[in-house]
Write a structure and sequence with these properties.
Shape: globular
Number of domains: 2
CATH architecture of the largest domain: 3-Layer(aba) Sandwich
Number of helices: 15
Oligomer: single chain
Largest sheet: 5 strands, parallel
Strand order of the largest sheet: 2-1-3-4-5
Distance between the termini: 47 Å
Helix content: 40-55%
Order of helices and strands: HHHEHEHEHEHEHHHEHEHEHEEHH
CATH topology of the largest domain: Rossmann fold
Strand content: 5-15%
Number of strands: 10
Structural class: alpha/beta
Length: about 375
């Protein structure tokens, strides 16, 4: 496959690499993750901020619970614009921010790095481009290396960022005396391969349903509200279809009113703290005559389409599996609609788009 190809087949080729990407992250070649974990513990970091834009922001939000619960390090996922312009002036002492950008070029994340350091806090760049603008702005690097086969919506790169963060959380937890998270993570690559196989048929069925509609809602809670946002993003980026995302509870307060008979709703609801409420929402979706497409270990019933993920993972690690069927769905819809990646109308539009998101203007924080 040509390195710059925007053929949508690149997307499925990268999805198939995900279990190996996970294994590579766990290996921590060079010991960069372990070294950062030791530094976090030894320097007395008390507040961790995970920041980025797009998929990177979703990854930070999805990983926050694992740091807070298993590493006993209060952690918050925050969008880079909000960190740089609204929160940075008020960060508590002993804060550390990790900025995620696989390309290392995203302007708002570089701005966050500059502002966080300006206000006296440490900033680490998690990136595949250590010499890019973000790496230069951050000064400290947590490298990530994921094979990129062409130009397609991020799937393996997203999982690589997630897995790196979860491995960091597991290393911190181990230094503090618990190996439980690390032992759970070691099972994830095989569970991911199993999930891709388990969900393939239902993901294609879901894609055929979604492709017939103008818009679709993705809903989730806790770490998987970020997964719902990831699912919506894959519709924008590949098939160019409208996907909205919201909290499981908020759907009942808002999107409920525009959900008609036959409307598909993707419910990301792995076993955990909110699965009982998700089941109630699925019941309501069924009552409306709409169609719930449920990503979970368990079939929640109520005429929903069950898109199965492998059993055996705790809720804080579940975003590593729940994103996989969403990646497949995004690919299948793009394939059904004969789309390429991103589908810029011309080269000028493509250039303008990337100049906009890479522009590292500096604002004055509120």
């Amino acid at each position: 496959m040509h390195a710059n190809s925007d053929d949508i087949q690149v997307m499925i080729n990268e999805i198939e690499l995900i279990p190996d990407v996970m294994r590579k992250c766990l290996e921590d070649q060079g010991g960069h993750i372990r070294s950062l974990a030791q530094s976090i513990v030894e320097t007395g970091v008390e507040h961790l901020w995970l920041t980025g834009c797009g998929d990177s922001a979703f990854a930070g939000s999805a990983a926050a619970l694992a740091f807070t619960k298993s590493s006993h390090l209060p952690t918050r996922g925050i969008h880079a614009l909000d960190l740089a312009r609204y929160e940075v002036r008020y960060l508590p002492k002993n804060s550390l921010a990790i900025g995620l950008s696989f390309s290392g070029k995203v302007g708002r994340t570089s701005e966050a790095a500059i502002q966080v350091r300006k206000f006296g806090h440490r900033f680490i760049a998690l990136t595949n481009a250590p010499n890019g603008p973000l790496g230069i702005a951050a000064g400290e690097i947590l490298p990530i290396d994921v094979p990129i086969l062409g130009f397609s919506p991020g799937t393996s790169s997203y999982v690589g960022m997630l897995m790196t963060l979860f491995t960091l959380a597991a290393e911190i937890a181990e230094i503090k005396g618990s190996r439980a998270l690390k032992e759970s993570l070691e099972k994830i690559p095989d569970l991911a391969a199993n999930t891709l196989e388990l969900s393939k048929s239902a993901a294609l069925e879901a894609a055929k349903i979604i492709a017939q509609h103008e818009w679709i809602a993705f809903i989730g809670a806790g770490p998987n509200e970020a997964t719902a946002k990831f699912g919506a993003a894959k519709l924008f980026e590949g098939p160019q279809q409208v996907g909205v995302s919201t909290n499981i509870e908020e759907w009942a307060h808002e999107e409920y009113f525009v959900t008609k008979p036959g409307t598909p709703v993707v419910v990301v609801a792995p076993n955990g703290a909110s699965v009982d409420r998700a089941s109630e929402i699925v019941s309501e979706i069924n009552f409306l005559g709409a169609k719930a497409l449920v990503i979970s270990e368990s079939d929640l019933g109520f005429n929903s389409l069950h898109i199965e993920i492998a059993k055996g993972v705790s809720e804080e690690l579940s975003p590593l599996l729940t994103c996989l069927p969403l990646s497949l769905i995004g690919f299948y819809i793009a394939e059904l609609k004969n789309k390429k990646s991103y589908n810029f109308k011309d080269e000028e539009t493509k250039v303008e788009h990337y100049e906009t998101i890479h522009r590292a203007t500096l604002g004055t924080p509120a």
